[in-house]
Amino acid sequence: MARFTLDGGKRMRSQFLWWALRACRGGQDHDQVHRALRIAAALELIQTGALVHDDLMDASRLRRGRPTLHADITTQYAAAHRPGASEPLGAAAALLGGDLALAWADDTIAHLELPPATGRRVRDIWTAMRTEMAAGQYLDLHAQATRSSRARWSRGLHPARARPLSMHSAQHEERGP
User: Is the distance from CB of 40 to CB of 27 less than 8 angstroms?
Assistant: First the structure.
C-alpha cells in the first residue's frame, strides 16, 4: 500500500489544501501545520483507496505506468499457489488494501484535535466527500453498463477535486478574518 500511495501521482488534493492554507496566510503555527498535514495525508489515503477499488472495478492492469495493486499481488503469488488461484487472491487482497486505506483515512480525520465546532464541520465535509466518492464510482459503473454519458458527468464533478479547499476553510472558520 505504501508503494502504491507514494509512487507516482501528483498529490493534487493535498497540494490544494496546503496552498489554500498558505494563501490565507496560514502555516506559521506548528499546530495548524500539523492539522493541515494530517488532513492532507487523509486525502491521499482516501484517493489511494478509491484508485485501488477503481482499478479492480475496471479490471485495469496498469496505473501510472506500473502494475495496479491487484496485478502486483497476483504476480507475487503466481508461483506460490496452484494455477489460477493467484487472480482471486490478488483481487481480494487489493480490495482489503483499498478498504484499509479508507479506514486509515477515516481514522486520521477522527483523531484530529480541533475545537468542537470546527471538528464537526471538518467531519461533515469528510463524510459528504466519502459518500460522493462512492456514489460517483457507482455512477461510473452504471454509465459503463448502460453506455451512458453520465460517466463524464460524474468525473467532472468529482468531490475530491473541490473538497480539500472546503477542508481548509472549515479548519479556520472559528478564527475569523
Answer: no
Helix H or strand E encompassing 123: helix 116-146
Vertex 123 angle, CA 120 and 129, to 5°: 140
Give Rg (Cα) of the chain: 18
| Rounded Cα distance, 8 and 136, in Å | 23
From residue 35, alpha-carbon distances to 66, 81, 161 in Å are 32, 44, 20
Beta-bridged to residue 120, according to DSSP, are: none
Is 39 in contact with 171 (CB distance < 8 Å)? yes
Q: For residue 123, with 0-12 CB atoms within 10 Å meaning exposed, 13-18 middle and 19 or more buried, which class applies?
A: middle
**CA nearest neighbour of 73 among 83, 54, 88, 84:** 88
**Torsion angle of alpha carbons 100, 102, 103, 104, nearest 10°?**
90
81-99: per-residue pLDDT in tens?
677 778 888 899 999 999 9
Q: Could you read off the pLDDT of 18-28 as tens digits, one per residue?
A: 888 888 887 78
C-alpha cell recorded at residue 160: 475530491
Residue 171 has what DSSP assignment? H
Which amino acid type is present at position 137?
Q
Q: Report the distance separating Cα 133 and Cα 160, nearest Å.
A: 7
